[in-house]
């Protein structure tokens, strides 16, 4: 079967098979997995939806009208009935003209031909045929072998684009979500690369324990995403009083059943984790469940659903924007691992990212107790666009030595692991080293007059991080991009105190975001100049 | 004696065939404009129509001559050519690229005429031989 797959991949892929059955063709079905208004042929509409329509936008679906006799699907609304219902009839449509087409022996006569999909093998031939400024509408060789390829399409991997609903074998992967009210609607398809988290309420009762499909694990795992089965990653059982325990073996499918007047194994939450490649194919799908129990008094439960996408061979890192930074999301930072940048293939990420948000770019957090040394290392992450200033008061006694104090203050200001690089875009990947901006460190001294004779002790008293960002991209939708990050440490001289005396100095740290985007300048056309050149012998015979 | 019905039929057939030829040609032109009619399919259809016209002229001439001179050889040859004319008519009835309802009608009439002619020719040959 490896050879079959390789052979199937070598075949030129064709587009979707043409629909020729009039009963299945619907031109007004535009919304995927949702009911279109006034579209009587939409298969996603239920009888309740039809009763709300006023008219049928597509009353008749036929093939080519020039055929002498053909099947036609007619849709109409019976407004007399209460509630109004849709009438679907398959009738034989007869063309009375004497020039109607009785039969045709030419297969592609009455339908558009499926174009050939370019592959490595036929690209040159297709370019020769269609690459010029005009080409004949009927090429010499028709590809009449389209039927054989359609069967193998189902098993091939399907490439997705952002936002496209994820296809399963029969329909789409659905993420129940509240639509108009808080009640769950099962018609919300999950879009590729669209991370969603929804919560909605579903009505349940102990009597209908095994009958409600949407509270059973089977409902969420039985649809496979084309070639990929949905595996159960973990099961957490939540008891009636809210305590959650993680189950050890997550292979067994636990279905709702009645136990001691309770209905157990009811799905309270599903979290899908989809792994994709950078070509847009889904290679793995896992679901984590939270199962709970309801008692006789319960009439409804709240279900929460989540879906997240991870690229294969990368660790999931929360993005701070796509691509520009979003105001309020943390600034992403990282380190360069030891030994880089030797020019070898980089198998691991070029930059080690910190997924722990407290090891990110952070600044000191002011506490109610303003003593620096008792601050306990509380730090807050730097959020893009939010200028922050924080600080504490340092009590200096005579007994304090210079060097340990300097080190303590540096740790306090910079934190345990101050990063070396900051991501210039909110979605910069660790593999793209050029997307990361190095942090420039500056040192300034508070004293204006530099007295070099004193063997002075310089202690850092302030850290100012200046983040310069610019607007990048189109004028209509500019993206924020960090261009430069400078961390300035200001030091001051620690004067030796006489014993018994104390001194309090303020320690500050601040973050400033500066917009250095140059404004868009209007461009004017140059003034027209008169280019006059007199002929060579204009002033003949004087010159 | 020459068969009078056969001669009448030859005369009517001749006039009808002129109409048939012009109608089929006009419809092929119409089809090539209105539908997608690539050259691969248009060529054979036009060629066969031309061949059919030539065969028809030959057939009618031989049949008429054989009937009037009461000789069975031209009539027999005409009968043989009728077989190929029938095949060509069936082609235009069933295996053409686009078969319109008008095509069906005129070809059916032509086939009926051929059938009647063939019967009368056989009777005439039998009469001439004996």
Task: Name some characteristics of this structure.
heterodimer; A: 543 residues; 3 domains; eight-stranded mixed β-sheet; seven-stranded mixed β-sheet; 6 helices; 23 strands; disordered N terminus; B: 130 residues; mainly alpha; 4 helices; 2% strand
Task: Summarize the topology.
The complex is a heterodimer of chains A (543) and B (130).
Chain A: H1 2-10, H2 47-50, E1 60-62, E2 69-78, E3 85-94, E4 101-104, H3 123-130, H4 146-153, E5 177-178, E6 184-185, E7 196-203, H5 217-221, E8 230-238, E9 244-246, E10 257-259, E11 262-276, E12 282-294, E13 300-311, E14 333-335, E15 352-353, E16 362-364, E17 379-381, E18 388-397, H6 402-414, E19 421-423, E20 436-445, E21 457-472, E22 479-494, E23 502-515
Parallel strand pairs in A: 8-12, 11-13, 20-22, 21-23
Antiparallel strand pairs in A: 1-2, 2-3, 5-6, 7-13, 8-9, 10-11, 11-12, 14-15, 14-19, 16-17, 18-23, 19-20, 21-22
Chain B: H1 4-34, H2 39-68, H3 72-95, E1 98-100, H4 101-129
Transmembrane segments (chain B): 6-30, 42-62, 74-94, 106-129
InterPro entries (chain B): Uncharacterised_TM-17
Organism (chain B): Mesembrinibis cayennensis
List unreliable stretches of 5+ residues of chain B: none
Report the sheet-strand fraction of chain A.
25-35%
- Radius of gyration of chain B, in Å, reads 16 Å
How many beta-strand segments of chain B? 1
* Chain-averaged pLDDT of chain B: 92
Greatest interface (CB-CB under 8 A), with counts per chain? A-B, 16 and 19 residues
Strand order of the largest sheet of chain A: 15-14-19-20-22-21-23-18
Secondary-structure element pattern of chain B, one letter each: HHHEH
The percent of residues in helical segments of chain A reads under 10%
